[in-house]
Design brief:
The chain has 486 residues and is of the alpha/beta class. Helices cover 35% and strands 23% of the residues. The protein has 14 helices and 24 strands. It has a six-stranded mixed beta sheet, covered by helices on one side. Strand 6 and strand 7 form a beta hairpin. Helix 1 packs parallel to helix 9. The structure holds flavin-adenine dinucleotide (FAD). Flavin-adenine dinucleotide binds next to helix 1, strand 3, strand 5, helix 6 and helix 9.
Amino acid sequence: MAEKAATSPTPTSPTQRHRVVVVGSGFGGLFGTKALSRADVDVTMIAKTTHHLFQPLLYQVATGILSEGEIAPPTREVLAKQKNATVLLGDVTGIDLDERTVTSHVLGRQLVTPYDSLIVAAGAGQSYFGNDQFAEFAPGMKSIDDALELRGRIFGAFELAELFAASGRNVDHLLTFVVVGAGPTGVEMAGQIAELAHKTLKRDFRAINTRKARVILVDAAGQVLPPFGAKLGRWTQEKLERIGVEVLLGSMVVAVDERGLEVQDKAGNRTRIEAVTKVWAAGVQASPLGRTLSEQTGAQLDRAGRIAVNPDLTLPGHPEVFVVGDMAALDNLPGVAQVAIQGARYAAKEIDGRLRGKAPHPPFKYFDKGSMATISRFGAVATVGKLRITGFLAWVMWLAVHLFYITGFKNQVTALLHWLVTFVANDRSERTATEQQIFARAALKRLDLGAQELVSEPGRTREELEAQALEEVRLTDSGARGRADA
Ligand SMILES: Cc1cc2nc3c(=O)[nH]c(=O)nc-3n(C[C@H](O)[C@H](O)[C@H](O)COP(=O)(O)OP(=O)(O)OC[C@H]3O[C@@H](n4cnc5c(N)ncnc54)[C@H](O)[C@@H]3O)c2cc1C
């Protein structure tokens, strides 16, 4: 049995100022915290990862273009100069709106943090539309773990294919890659796997021809990139097909296993595709914290688990609690970074304004700056207002916008260098893949309490590791390392 969670002392405000707790270090969490830098408050950001993740570039980590550090800088470092901000690692498991406390856990330790104002920006996870068992075989694209696991699976598939082909075995299932979901993430992922297989890797193997790898983009909808409209959708599909992606529309994934998946068309016909590597880029489900908040306030949850908020992003009956970004449902706003950023800045401004005794701001209004998706090297689509832009110009816009929003100057510089390597030289700098990337997460999931079990239930393995470590220390201290009589 694991230890009972130990509760750490409740943190007190060192200054007795107004306490703002921010849940999440994503776009809403980070931009909300930054927007409070000049306010007369103490901000505590609690997030379950130590980094701020730039999700729109996860697919580039998965396909070996960027390193994980470039898109996920430590939040602590980003906020180092903001003196009124404290960063805490913790998985928030409870929010008590009456007591005004946030409860979080790390490896069995519990922390209860009181607040005067709260900004909840815990985002969304992947949705498998009720088929969570698909996740083991078709990882989503929501976290650094997802991206590294996918990187391991993608590059690992080519390695296994090389081995098996050398002994004369069929490797079609290893050289078929299926991406589920033809939204921006799916399109970008499929385009990058195709470029990787058909261009970057074409000279690296002896027994297989990577140019023969199949990349299939599947979606139940009738077009790719539905939010971009029919014309851009058609343009994108043609472009994908030109770089070797097979686009399978009107096909719903109905089964997934280790070696492949089954799709069903509108007439009910089922087809099996043999593919070891699958990527799930369809559907999102808002953080389960939405349910906790809904139960305490009566605010409705929509089908994606997003909680209905007031026009000023607060919860009914709780003007001190703001919910922003992917967790919030208001006016059908899309789940995009700008909605989270602008919502969080609005909440911060409102908190600051109240403390200064100002009248409430008008309701939150989202300013749509446009959307974009890359398809291949030098090829992208973008919508800005009524403008529809395709090709090289859209790609340059994509490059500039993403470079601007990557957090930190050093990450901007190194990302730019990695893009030069990829887009000019058709190469990839981040191809490192290890067994742990692929299997460690699944192994941890098999432990009842995950990593917590390793820490709070040290068993024989732990003792053996400690004994080995002591022996290493003894060898070093006695100068006996490497001696035959040691
Ligand atoms: C692969 C991918 C590509 C995307 N591409 C684009 C794009 O090109 N353009 C665009 O505008 N948008 C894009 N998006 C959407 C965009 O990233 C999201 O809309 C945005 O991140 C939402 O911000 P958020 O703050 O609500 O949530 P997030 O940025 O997801 O942040 C949530 C934070 O909460 C933390 N958290 C979650 N649960 C808990 C908990 N229980 N306890 C503590 N912390 C918790 C997480 O660790 C994270 O720090 C993409 C998303 C994905 C997944």
